[in-house]
Amino acid sequence: MRERMRIPDFELEVFFGKHEFSAPHLLAQSDCEALSIAELLALEPDPAGAREAFLQTRLSYAENDGKPELRQAIARLYRNADNDRVLVQTGAQEGIFSCLNVLLEKGDHVICMFPAYQSLYEVARAVGCELSFWRFRQTGQGWALDFDALESLLRPHTRAIVVNTPHNPTGYALSDAELRALCALAAGRGIHVIADEVYKGLEDPDGSDENAWHARPAICELYERGVSIGVLSKAYGLPGLRIGWAVSRDRDLLTAMSRFKNYLSICCAAPSEELALVALCHAPAILARNRGILRANLALADAFFARHAGLFTHNRPLAGPIGFHKIHIDGPMEGFCERLAREAGVLLLPGSVYGMDEPYFRMGYGRRNFGENLARFESWLAEAKLD
Question: Which CATH number, 3.40.640.10, 3.50.50.60, 3.40.50.300, 3.40.50.2000, labels domain 60-281?
Answer without folding.
Answer: 3.40.640.10
